[in-house]
Amino acid sequence: MESAQDLLVALARRYSFGDVGALAPAVLANPVKAAHVSAVCEFGQRLLTLDAEDFASELDVPTIPADLRRRARACHMPQTPKGQPRGALDSLRPAYALLLEVIKVRWDQRELSAMMAALHIAAEYLPLLAYETALGHSGDPARWPEGLRAPGSRFGVIGDRDCDHTRSEQSATERTLRVAGEPGEGWRAYFDRQHSQVAGALATCVAKCRNPCPAIEWVPDRDNLALRCRVALTFAETPLVRLRHAAPVGHGFGVPSPEEVLDAWQRSRGALAKNGIGHQVMRGDGFPLAGLPSLFSAIADANLRPARLLADVSEHVISLLRSY
User: How far apart are CA 203 and CA 233, in angstroms?
Assistant: First the structure.
């Protein structure tokens, strides 16, 4: 390697945005240009770590190309009930494309702890990805259909013993019906703790409730949605996703090896393939966890493939380094 600048280029190719941003001031002679590189790297690092709450802190930085900001904004979670644009609450499809890209990058770098965390996030919100076709959005609490509150609905009723929701899901569904009227602090606390439980509760309503109530009578093509939600719930219980709980990654007690991940995924594919549209997971789509993009596509009822957002941020950082 000829120079320190070449080292930064090599790190940028490996999506090591945090390292490039930290080293740029020491390597680049011009402090203004170094700050430019660091700002773009901070943006890339937030994307890589799926820090969707804080994407917005870089979205108005003029040194980041408008196209990259627009694509990141599509994955952003609004921080207030009336925040615009709605980003991931309009559609989860861009966010799942980014998740797939992150999973691939983490696998290629053998950063399996971070990869398992991304898979866990994907599992939690998969039912909302499925519901998007029925809702016209991806579970925006400011736009829930009135049908959830239909006469006789048990959705959001705490303590109703005829409802198949757990106590925590009942609390989350009750909160989601009113959180759009809360201040920003309450809105953010809800998304931190309860929105993923609402996703699971909605899947239960359409796919496995033993005592159906009027809450989902508004849903068009209910059988199709139920099938896709059933696959989403199955994914959350697969050996692959359970690896994160079996080996508490991130707490110093071990991380699954690549061989363990691939073995768990093969067993997961076998379980998913028995479940309706889950057979799409057996497709060979060139992904490190073969069939995962095809599975997400089947659940979404839309074509989902890994994004190129991280790759394009990397290329932009490299072009900046070479121009300096």
Answer: 7
